[in-house]
Design goal:
It is built from six helices and five strands. It is an alpha/beta fold and 142 residues long. The protein has a single domain, classed as P-loop containing nucleotide triphosphate hydrolases (Rossmann fold, 3-Layer(aba) Sandwich). The protein has a five-stranded parallel β-sheet. It is found in: Cytoplasm; Nucleus.
Length: 142
């Protein structure tokens, strides 16, 4: 690589918004575009996805087991699941870095508090920002 060339980094787009605001619909549309993005699902409680996720939190964290083990309700289990998953986020970054895709899209749960006050939201967004230097947020609140 020429010293003047900068390494190519993907643009990371976090679909963030209230439940039912269209985050998953946006990710689904983007995943069907000609230049397919690298897709990360961060919603541990979703039952089915209308798109293929390269990385899916549900492969690592079992949301229902988190509810049982920690005696939590649905929202607490989502926050705790993301807190557990954020400890593995350096591995997620490694996979995104190796991807040839120009865009990485992250679908998030509708519990917006995960990214507004939870430590996992800070870890995820700050790790993406510090690694890729380009972080775009979209808020789909309707």
């Amino acid at each position: 690589m020429n010293m003047a060339e900068k390494p190519k980094v993907p643009v990371c787009l976090i679909a963030l918004g209230m439940a039912g605001s269209g985050k998953t619909s946006l990710v689904s549309r983007l995943s069907n575009s000609p230049k397919k993005p690298y897709v990360v699902n961060l919603d541990p409680a979703c039952i089915q996805m209308p798109y293929f996720a390269n990385i899916d939190i549900r492969d690592t964290v079992n949301y229902k087991e988190v509810m049982k083990q920690y005696k939590l309700g649905p929202n607490g289990a989502i926050v705790t699941s993301l807190n557990l998953f954020s400890t593995k986020f350096p591995e997620v970054i490694s996979f995104i870095e190796k991807s040839p895709n120009e865009l990485c899209v992250l679908d998030t749960p509708g519990q917006i508090e995960v990214f507004t006050w939870s430590v996992s939201g800070s870890i995820i967004t700050e790790t993406l920002a510090s690694t890729f230097l380009q972080l775009y947020f979209t808020s789909l609140i309707v």
